[in-house]
Q: What sequence folds into this?
């Protein structure tokens, strides 16, 4: 319980959605946007805030769990690592969550990686589904639902005019003169998504 309280406070401080990217045609002008002659809504790509979207994981044979409990999902396919309130409310699961969420610095490549044997993926890239409810089992908890609902109320449709760019928030973007493989891959996918959104 205490952990969840702390988690929520931390979340409230840090996880407030930070960045939004509104993508306009290159010849965008405000008068055109507000004018009734605009052929449709300009597409919007939403980049959710830190730790706002789902993150899936899978444990491979290389994973060396700190306890048998943490290894229970080894070899059993993808599961939702983040966000899963039910798991985080179980004190025995918290160390497993911490261990599977952690990233490891490799001095040789000057970059960060998942813990050995933990594969992660960000589901529903392209859709706001990825972050509408970070824990789909607990829909009374969301940072983005109101915002997405308001966009839908003025006519936006998911994956038609409204897009989502969830990311693996554990990895920072590359600082000057340092690599970030995960961060750079994200920007590549974001660029493609923006280009696709503009063509729709
Ligand atoms: C400006 O953008 C609109 C909407 O994408 C397009 O229909 C129009 O042809 C563009 N005009 C110019 C001058 O590029
Ligand atoms: C979005 O729509 C495209 C084209 O219809 C489809 O291929 C893609 O799977 C959809 N993506 C999501 C996340 O629903
Ligand atoms: C949200 O739902 C869960 C169970 O589904 C419940 O335990 C929790 O108290 C609810 N939170 C709020 C703020 O209503």
A:
């Amino acid at each position: 319980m205490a952990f969840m309280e702390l988690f929520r406070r931390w979340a409230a401080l840090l996880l407030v959605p930070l960045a939004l990217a509104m993508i306009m045609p290159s010849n965008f002008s405000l008068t055109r946007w507000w004018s009734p002659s605009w052929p449709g809504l300009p597409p919007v790509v939403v980049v959710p805030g830190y730790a706002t979207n789902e993150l899936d994981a899978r444990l491979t044979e290389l994973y060396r769990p700190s306890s048998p409990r943490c290894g229970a999902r080894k070899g059993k396919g993808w599961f939702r690592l983040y966000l899963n309130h039910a798991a985080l409310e179980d004190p025995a699961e918290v160390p497993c969550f911490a261990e599977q969420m952690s990233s490891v610095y490799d001095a040789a490549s000057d970059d960060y990686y998942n813990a050995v044997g933990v594969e992660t993926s960000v589901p529903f890239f392209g859709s706001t589904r990825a972050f509408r409810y970070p824990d789909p089992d607990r829909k009374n908890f969301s940072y983005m639902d109101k915002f997405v609902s308001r966009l839908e109320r003025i006519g936006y449709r998911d994956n038609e005019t409204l897009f989502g760019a969830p990311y693996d928030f554990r990895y920072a973007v590359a600082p000057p003169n340092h690599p970030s493989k995960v961060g750079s891959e994200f920007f590549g996918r974001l660029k493609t998504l923006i280009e696709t959104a503009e063509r729709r």
